[in-house]
Amino acid sequence: MSGLDIEVSVTPEFRDAESSDSESRYVFSYTVTVHNQSPHSVQLMARYWKITQGSGDSQEVRGKGVVGQQPLIGPGQRFRYTSRAILQTPVGVMEGAYTLLNTYTQRAFDVPVSPFRLAVPRQLH
Q1: What is d(CA 8, CA 97) in angstroms, rounded to the nearest whole number?
Q2: Strands 91-102 and 6-14: what pairing?
Q3: What average pLDDT is seen over the chain?
Q4: Which of 13, 39, 83, 120 has the fewest CB atoms within 10 Å around its CB?
């Protein structure tokens, strides 16, 4: 099993009511769907995110699981969760990886998450 058997999609959304232009606080939620297309169950063990501000500054976030869980995702199943990122600029980029465990072989492998853009809609900025 490789990361090719796992599909990750991300849908970001600007949270206007929680953001403040005057405080340089831009809140985004992002909904991630992890689709296990392999014949074996996998467990999402850890996450890694690199968050890059529009200024070029970046930070890295690592942690166990996602949203307080280390979900088990069966063959053909999807796991979906929503989290958030707070930027100091109206535009940024996130990218990262999940570490998953093949429960059949007990081997861990990483699945990259392609970069996705966080941006305040033009009419709001």
Answers
A1: 10
A2: unpaired
A3: 95
A4: 39
- For tokens 């990361």, what's the residue? 3
Indicate the burial class of 87 (C-beta count within 10 angstroms; 0-12, 13-18, 19 or more): buried
CA distance 3 to 42: 11
Q: What is the spatial distance between Cα 102 and Cα 85, in angstroms, rounded to a whole number?
A: 29
Beta-bridge mates of residue 100: 44, 109
Per-residue pLDDT reduced to its tens digit, 45-102: 999 999 999 999 999 999 999 999 999 999 999 999 999 999 999 999 999 999 999 9
The rounded percent of the chain whose pLDDT value lies above 70 is: 94
Element (H, E) at 32: strand 26-36
DSSP label of 90: S
Contact assessment for residue 75 and residue 41, using Cβ atoms and an 8 Å cutoff: yes
